[in-house]
Amino acid sequence: MTSSVQDGGAPLVKVRIPPVLRDVVDGARQLEVEGATVGAALDALFARFPALHDRLTSDGKLSTFVNVYVNADDVRHRDGLATALGETDTVILLPAMAGGADQGGPTSRAGTVSTVWAPDSA
Amino acid sequence: MPEEGPVLTIAARSAPSTATPFTPGFAGLACSACLTPAPSGPRFVCSQCFGPLEATYDYPRIAGSLTREGIAARPRTLWRFAELLPVEELPLDGLAVGFSPLVPAPRLAAWLGLRLLWIKDDSRNPTLSFKDRNVAIATARARGFGFTTLACASTGNLAASVAATAAVNGMKSVVLVPADLEPAKIAQAEALGARVARIDGPYDVVNRLCLELSDEFDNWAVVNVNIRPFYSEGSKSVAFEIAEQLGWRAPDAVVAPIASGSLYTKLRRGFDELARVGLIEAPTTRHIGGQPAGCAPVATAFGAGSDTIHPVAQPDTIVRSLAIGSPADGQRSLALARVTCGSIEAVEDADTIAAIRLLAETEGILTETAGGVTIAALQSAIAQGVVGPDDEVVAVITGNGLKTLEAIVDAPARDVIEPSLDAFAAWATREGVS
Prior knowledge:
A: 122 residues; alpha+beta; five-stranded mixed beta sheet; two-stranded antiparallel sheet; globular; B: six-stranded mixed beta sheet; 15 helices
């Protein structure tokens, strides 16, 4: 992953954690990690909290149930996980509500559509 | 799972005297992806995999208690299917929602070259759209969870529904809408008592803000966020009613608009559930969906044969109620269209306007722009052979045309006619009505 920061390493950015995930980050609403891109920031976050990695990834890819924003922008409208970050940026993780969509990573998670309408879960 | 549940009573404003026993079939929430159960409450995301929570039901128990005759004896509201809705008790307050007419549309059918066409006219709900169904259920649960304020992100119809339902339940309402929404929709919600927050951005931005604020404003029931697993189930009742009104069967094809894709996919869930509890045969219904061409992420993926839905950053369409660039149920919609041999059509705004006029002039139903998309999508599906002349088709009309009059009313003022017979005769000749 290429860095947009040429000197002094990756910027320190804020990551906002949704309520349902706070139990695996010691209750934090917001954390600070280093990352020159959204992907690098998430990798840093996952390294610190492996349980978060388990919940938010599948087959090594970010779950399609997660939408990632940088400040107010959906990263799918920018460069996906390669979206560059600066010191003042906040990365926001939000649920994709239902079916979700891939974040512009190498592959989408095909398994998402396996439960199409009437899940046999009763 | 217990064999016997509490026997409760169905009562509704429209027909309180026909109260009937009801054994809840709701069996709690579970993740639709990893199937992990979750406690029933104001939550919508799986704590294990971040997937969406959905309502589950004890179908064998429902099959043992719910009969066609029992349903037929109940009040004509969506609560007549209470066993298949995510509630343990029925609300004492509320609007009389659901059981909208299934209207035969022979003149439109003839125009389209179809044998049998029905309009499910869901604009005939209390606030003139199908959203009253979702909000009725969400509100019943929200009150039970102890909330006193209802909120939502809305493209218009939901705003009015939340406002009216809050009013009749003695609750407060706050609705977030894109700032450029049709004036009639904002006026309707405000008149019904909602505080309307006009947000600078398209719906997806409003929705993102609503997701964020549901964290901070956790004393609000944001019906399509933290109450969503309950809210979204309301759309199933459209399918329940269609099947009952057709004489307990599913149609060959059903046509619906796609905004988030929730209604489109829940229609199938409704037919499937009726089959599962033995009330209809297994459906073979093809599901036709429509999106405006200026915001058609799911139709585009369907047309391209792709599994990837590219979100639309800046929707450009007169169909504000379908202008959702990142549809929550997009992937499921795509799968449903494919599995049922249906289709998802992209409809140009000009065709939407023409279809609004066509429905109005053939069947006397004035629909909002989303309904125009539905009729135009049907036309497109017929042209491509997805729907054939011998199919029995149901088109779901989701909202009333008075909400989006600007789409069909030309800006210039009409002629003012001098009150004389000569002047009137001249006007009649010009208009071709003499």
